Structure formats: structure tokens, C-alpha cells
Amino acid sequence: MSSNVTYQYIKENRDIQEYIRRADKELEALGYTEHSFAHVEKVAHTAGDLLAELGYDERTAELARIAGMMHDIGNIINRIDHAQSGAVMAFRLLDNMNMPASEISQIISAIGNHDESTGQPLNPISAALIIADKTDVRRSRVRNTDLITFDIHDRVNYAVEHSEVHLNEDKTAIVLELRIDPEISSVAEYFEIFLNRMLLCKKSAQFLKLRFELIINGTSVL
């Protein structure tokens, strides 16, 4: 059974936009980095493009983009277990759009498994979503403008001057390249915050029959 629910439709859906906007406001109140449209659209495109480059069919790549767009809406309920909350919300929204169960199941499985505390790559969409989400590290996600009051999360994200995710030339590895200002945050601090996320990226890459490589300031560290 085919579906007329496209990524563009999801992106322009006013209800989904409102959930994304309000979920980000909840996280802002808690002191978290940006989780609004810049983040979810970047995750959507990274996840979809990765699967497309690996030769998955166009619809599978589009389902990955839809999952990326919706993956953080559960934060409107609570940051704790937001992946599972978001999966339940996504099910109701997509079911009401008459998307077939064969597609909904892949999307909600991906959303429900994207958090590093509980998640696992269970299908190509979930693996791509995890990689896209966990590699979105960049200075522009930091809301705090007072460097003196930065916590470790602010420092680690603000220290990233450049971030790029790509497949290597022979498509055997997904590579995250970062340029970090060591005057703001050390590589050790980066691993203190992101080690579990990077390990989940490694597991997700393996699911896609790839290696995961992390290069920081020109040096391979994972």
C-alpha cells in the first residue's frame, strides 16, 4: 500500500510545526541546546541523504526524512523518555493521515530508538536517524550568549567551529569531521559528553555495514 504522505507535507504541517516549536521551548526552559527547526531539518536531510547515497530506494530515504523531522516532538511531554513519547505522538499523527502501517511502523521504531540511553538501530531508518541526530554538533545550537556561564554542554558545542558528516570515497565508512577550538573545550570534554552517542553511531554504522570514523582537528580518534 502506497502513501501520499510526503516529507514536504510533514514539514509544512502546522500541527507538527507547533509541536516542534513548543518542544524546543520546553528544552530552552530546561537549559538545553537548540532542538528546533534548524536541528530537525538538518537531521532529516542527513538521514535521508545517507540512505539515498547507500542505494536505498527513494521512499525509504523519504521515510527517514519524515522520522528526522518528527523525532524530537516527544520533548513537549518530558525530556525523559522523549523518544518513546514522540513515537506514540507520531503514530497518532501519521495514522490520522492514513499512512499505511508498513510505513508508520518503520518511522515510530526509528523515533522510539533514537535516544542513546535506550535506543538501538533496528532498521535502516533508525540507524540513519541515530547517526544524523548524534552528529549534529555545532556552535549555532548554543543558546547561551554569556561565555562565563557556559556549562560543559555549552562549551563542547560552542567549541565546534566546523562540522561535516559524509561517506568516505568508497562508501565503506560514515565520517564525522570536527574542528574544535581547544581554548574553549578539550577533546577529552567532548568525549565526556558524547562518548555514548558516538558508540551508538558506531553501532548504527555497523548495522548499515559501514565503519564509523570520528576525526577531530585532523586526527582520527574513533
Report what the structure shows.
- The chain has 222 residues and is of the alpha+beta class.
- Helices cover 54% and strands 11% of the residues.
- It is built from 9 helices and 4 strands.
- It has a 4-stranded mixed beta sheet with strand order 1-2-3-4.
- β2, α9 (187-207) and β3 form a beta-alpha-beta unit.
- α3 (37-53) crosses α7 (124-134), α4 crosses α7 (124-134) and α7 (124-134) packs antiparallel against α9.
- The longest helix is centred in the last third of the chain and has 21 residues, at 187-207.
- The N and C termini lie far apart (42 Å).
Short description:
The chain has 222 residues and is α+β, with helices and mostly antiparallel strands. 54% of the residues lie in helices and 11% in strands.
List the helices and strands and how they pair.
Layout: H1 7-12, H2 14-30, H3 37-53, H4 58-70, H5 82-96, H6 101-112, H7 124-134, H8 152-158, E1 160-167, E2 173-180, H9 187-207, E3 211-216, E4 219-220
Parallel strand pairs: 2-3
Antiparallel strand pairs: 1-2, 3-4
Helix pairs in contact: 3-4, 3-7, 4-6, 4-7, 5-6, 6-7, 7-9
Task: Name some characteristics of this structure.
222 residues, alpha+beta, four-stranded mixed sheet, 4 strands
